[in-house]
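Quarterly update from the structural biology core.
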Amino acid sequence: MKITIFLLCIPILLWAQAPQGFQEFEWGTGPDEISATALGEGWENTETPLFPNTPEIEVFQRNQEIGGYTAVTNFYFYEDQFFQATVHFDFSHLAEYDFNFNVFISVDEYYREIRTQTLTFVNDIYTLLKRRYGRRQPVFKGIDPRNMFARTDNYISQERWNLRYNASEYYKRIITRGYAKWTYPETQIIFSIDISAPDERFDYLLSASSVALKKEIEDRVLDDRSLGL
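Predicted structure, tokenized:
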């Protein structure tokens, strides 16, 4: 599989009013049309492990500003048909935050910063999605992103006195995740966050995929893999 990289920083909204694609591009659009319309020139091909053993899939990538947040957007094509897009929001600065994990006040300040920035981001994304699609409620897998810090908050509240003498244990507990999924007739939207401060992992992801095309691709890949059975 090839990945085509475009460096284009522009402010942009999410999808069109009717979720039949991503941004201004409908599912099934060819890569040449998208490239000519929005991505411009200055691209190069390189290998990517995102879809191993699936050479028919090509990825176009560009830097964007979405909802006021810096992000990298991937456009996925299978046999020249646009079928999926993923947006990786950049929160790498949280992994570089200057604090002392052996000092309670410092760890607590770090946690509050992660919590505040993340919940502000979640609220902004939900507001944008609601504005685009109305009040349809998502299906949650695990923890609603809006409540993803509740368990950690409860733990800190109960163990606060002990954690003052064991700040590193507090630091190890800054781990949480959230997941929400919206399914429309033609489009599935997934919003997920995966945080692990000890592992310096801050993954904030929004994706959209064509329900019909993704199923067709999955079926064809399974058929190809079963040929030798």
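Helices lie at 31-39, 104-133, 150-163, 167-172, 211-225.
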